[in-house]
Write a structure and sequence with these properties.
Length: 584
């Protein structure tokens, strides 16, 4: 592969001319260049002395900026605390303009701002106007072990408690990780030295099913580190200095044992905002203690990931009211399954699901989940996936064929009607993805009778179009039957239907339509948005509502694919609707 200066010789010439124009002494590391990497050293005059800078260029230059390191100087802000590289561009270098900017540009335009921020006499207002408004916590700069994490709850132990034990729920170590560190799981409890829980992670995540214990301590300031390679041992030494229990545990450990230790301390977690942060180490015993011979250990950083409910919802605070809502979804086919996943992803508190079918491999071309669930009841697959991936949503359901006949008088199970009526009474909304007119008729009437919002979604042959609609008691004038009458007389248009033949795949008891999830998912996603909006419509600061009740969408027309085209309608009451005429 040719180096960038060979691919773009004009860029090299432009870079050299710009450096010459600075008037500073600079040089190219010829050894590095011969090895295929461009490294430039520049001596910048600063405060009566010289600031030595080293610029390392990426292979993809000039599309991305060089990394500039201050060789000897150490700054309090806008410098990597371990690698010493300077933060000359904000937000991952989005202000870098290829073909226009150069190392000389960084030195003349960006470096002065970094130096000004770090001046001892810099006023707070001046600093605020210059620097990027992001925090610089130590935890964001550490070299973490790949594929490892410890999820922590929102809270941290009180300042009055200085150390204690950790209770961990971990994933089993995969075989390929036997020769290196692997710690992946949840901090279930942060306890005091007597193992009394101080902070709990209440949610259970099924894949993390192996119990382990560890140690933690509180520091008054963030750990002191020097270099990337030395940092793990330096932090371990600081932990061992305040945790004699950790030292004893290491002395008693066997070769290969891993002991987790956490340090909690105050740091700048966002711009000018200080709160508690975590650093975790996995301490692996590489040689156990023997007589007078002390043990050897290797310490590796394990990433802490804030997974409490408050931290999780910060990225979408308008979904917070959804945490107290329950939805009943009937039908887990090509529309219902992705809709359920979207509701869980949005953070709905509880999800009840009803279906009777088994997932086949062929379904996965338009189903919400993949091959690993083949042969599962669709309800089982959805519930298991949500428990694993979205544990803040409680998912449960029934394998139930609505309209089915009991097998005989010996069948003493609870009646289908009793189950459905209770589920609808307890739900905050009913979502009908059954793709069955008789089921929809039944659910729409039962939802109206109980006084609960009702959302429905359907697709056409070829997944070329679809309909999403809702009825909200006391807010929607019309009903589902009014909608059908509007469809019949053209007051609401029909979606595109490609009229493709149905097929009956091997092992399938019923014919099914032709269509793929790359199309039908657009219908499910809009229905999920409508469901969330309907649930939050009366909640302050909730997800904003729609101005319509029915949307008819086209995804294809005249054998051409379309960006989804939606026509929306308000659902008014029909004077010829017998159902509306009988409503109290």
């Amino acid at each position: 592969m040719e180096a960038w200066w060979i691919r773009y010789p004009d860029e090299l010439g432009r870079e050299q001319c710009a450096l010459d124009a600075l008037g500073y002494s600079w040089s190219i590391d010829q050894v590095a260049m011969d090895a295929g990497q461009m490294i430039v050293r520049v001596e910048v005059v600063h405060d009566g002395g010289t600031l030595a800078l080293t610029a390392t260029y990426p292979d993809s230059y000039p599309y991305f900026a060089p990394m500039v390191t201050a060789d000897d100087a150490k700054f309090a802000r806008h410098q990597h605390p371990l690698g010493r590289n300077l933060c000359l561009l904000a937000r991952e270098g989005e202000d870098w303009y290829p073909g226009q900017d150069s190392l000389a540009t960084l030195i003349t335009e960006q470096l002065p701002a970094v130096l000004a921020v770090n001046r001892e006499d810099a006023l707070s207002e001046q600093v605020a106007s210059i620097e990027d408004h992001v925090g610089e916590p130590l935890s964001s700069f550490l070299p973490y072990t790949q594929d490892c994490v410890l999820i922590v709850p929102d809270g941290t132990p009180p300042l009055s408690v200085r150390s204690g034990r950790l209770e961990l729920s971990l994933r089993e170590v995969p075989p390929q990780f036997n020769d290196r560190c692997f710690v992946s799981g949840v901090v279930k409890s942060v306890c005091d030295v007597r193992s009394t829980p101080l902070v709990r992670f209440e949610t259970t995540i099924p894949p993390f099913n192996s119990y382990a214990r560890g140690y933690w301590a509180r520091l008054d300031v963030r750990p002191v580190v020097s270099t990337i390679t030395a940092a793990p041992q330096e932090v371990f030494n600081q932990a061992a200095a305040v945790l004699p229990e950790l030292v004893k545990a290491i002395q008693a450990a066997k070769r290969g044992d891993v002991i987790v230790v956490g340090l909690v301390y105050p740091d700048e977690v966002s711009w000018r905002t200080t709160s508690d942060d975590w650093i975790f180490l996995a301490v692996r015993v590489t040689r156990e203690a023997r007589r007078s011979q002390p043990p050897d250990v290797r310490a590796d950083f394990i990433r802490a990931d804030w997974g409490g409910e408050r931290a999780w919802m910060r990225r979408a605070p308008f979904l917070t009211p959804l945490r107290k809502k329950r939805a009943l979804v009937v039908g887990l086919g090509s529309l219902g399954s992705p809709l359920c996943l979207q509701l869980a992803k949005a953070g709905i508190g509880e999800l009840r699901v009803i279906d009777f079918d088994v997932l086949q491999v062929g379904n996965t071309i338009r189903w919400g989940l993949g091959w690993q669930y083949a042969g599962f009841q669709k309800t089982t697959a959805v519930m298991a996936h949500i428990a694993n991936e979205y544990p803040y949503t409680a998912a449960s359901g029934y394998n139930l064929r609505i309209g089915g006949v009991r097998q005989g008088p010996w069948d003493r199970t609870r009646s289908e009607y009793a189950i459905l009526r209770q589920e609808i009474q307890e739900a905050d909304i009913i979502v009908d993805a059954a793709a069955n007119h008789r089921v929809s008729h039944f659910l729409a009437d039962l939802a109206s009778e109980v006084g609960k919002p009702y959302v429905w979604l359907t697709t056409t042959h070829g997944a070329a179009g679809g309909i999403v609609g809702r009825v909200q008691p006391t807010r929607t004038d019309g009903c589902w039957h009014c909608f059908l009458r509007n469809l019949a007389d053209g007051s609401i248009r029909l979606p595109v239907d490609e009229g493709t033949d149905e097929i009956q795949p091997g092992g399938c008891s019923q014919p099914t339509f032709i269509g793929a999830g790359i199309d039908s998912d657009a219908i499910a996603h809009l229905a999920a948005r409508l469901t969330v909006a309907t649930l939050n419509s009366e909640e302050e600061h909730g997800y904003p509502d729609f101005s319509w009740d029915v949307a008819v969408g086209d995804l294809r027309r005249a054998h051409m694919s379309l960006a989804p085209e939606w026509t929306t309608y308000s659902l008014g009451k029909r004077h010829d609707c017998a159902a509306c005429g009988t409503r109290v």
